[in-house]
Predict the structure.
Amino acid sequence: MAKECNEFTQKLYAKRLISDEQFEAIKAYGSRGLFSLHYELRFLLYLGILLFTSGIGTLIYKNIDSIGHSAVLGLLFLLIGIGFYFCFKKAKGFHKDEVLFDNPVYDYIVLLCTILSCIFIGYLQYQYSIFGYGLSSLVCSFVGFVCAYYFDNKSALSIGITGLATFIGITSTPKSLLESEIYSNPSLTFSGIALGGLLILCELYSNKIALKKHFQLVFLAFALQLIGVCGIAGLLESHWYIFVFLLAVLLYFFYKKSHEIGSTFLFVFTVLYGYIGFNILLFKLFDNIDFSEIWPVITILTPLYFIGSIFGFIKVIQHFNKQKA
C-alpha cells in the first residue's frame, strides 16, 4: 500500500498537480509508516479498571442504605466469580518462567478481579468483622500474590506487596504523608526497613531458583521506596547513627543492582535518597558549628550548592543512560 501511494504521489508531482512543498510533506508523512497504539490502549484499559472500581466504591458508599449489605457482597462475589472463571479458562497454568495470555485483555481482567477481591474482603471485615485485627490486609496480600504468580501479573504482585505494607502499618495515602505517620512513629521505620529487606531476599531467592525472574524490578522498586523513606525517617530520630551505616549499605546494593539490570528508575531513586540522606547528615554536622561570623558567605554558597547538585544529578543520570546504551 505504501509503495502504491508513493508511485501515485510521484505521478501527481510529475504532472505538476501538487507543489514541491506538498510533495515533500506527503513523502515525509508516508515515511513515518504505521505506528502502534499498544501502550495507549493498555493505558486506557488500566484507567478504565481504576474508574470502574472507583465507581463501584462510590456507588456502594452513597447507596448502602437502599441496596443492603448482603446485596452488595453478593454482587461483588458474582463479578469476581465471573472474572476469575474466564481468567482460569484462558490461563496456561503456573510456570516458573514468564507466561502471557494470548489476549492481553485478560491481564486487566485479573487486575480487576484482584481489586474487587480486596474490596470484597475489606467490606466483609468492615461490616461483619470476620477477620482479626489487621488480618484483612494480610488476606488481600495473599490474594494478590496468588493471582500474581498463577496468572503472571505484575499489577497483582504490586497489590500483594502493598497489602503487606498495610499489614505492618505503613500506608501511602495522601493523608498519611501529610500527617507524617512514618516520621512520627519510630517503630514503623524498623518495620519498613525489615519489609524492604524481606523483599530483597525474595528477589534474590527468586533469581536463584529462576522463579518469575521478570518480577525482579517490582520487588526491588518497592524495597527501595520502603528502605529509602524509612531510612531517611530514621536519620531524623535521636538514634540516627544506627541508620547511617544501614542506609549506606542498602543504597550501595541498589546502586549496583541498577547497573546490573540497567534500571534508570532504581538508579534515579537511589541517587535521590542518597542525596537527601547526605544533606540530613550535613545539617546535623553544621548544627554544632557556629556560622554567625561567616553567615553572609553561607547565604551565597547555599544556592550555588543546590544549583550544582541539580546539575550534578542530571549529569550522573545522563552518564548512567550512556553506560546502559
